[in-house]
Amino acid sequence: MALPTLTPEQRAAALAKAGEVRRARSEMLADVKAGKLSLKAVLDRAAKGEEMVKKTKVTALIKALPGYGPA
Question: What mean pLDDT do residues 34-52 have?
Fold first, then answer.
């Protein structure tokens, strides 16, 4: 299956959307690391259907948990 041909505007829009998702995920993981957001709260957001949360890698989430990340 070939990739669809995108116009420069479509590429720019996709790049902007990806950047927003990365920033939101980074903020969420920082909040988990700081203890502002619990694992239960993150899992509740995923259960409600938040795509960004659902697509977050489990290992990244576990590493962000206080006391469980790398030393």
Answer: 96
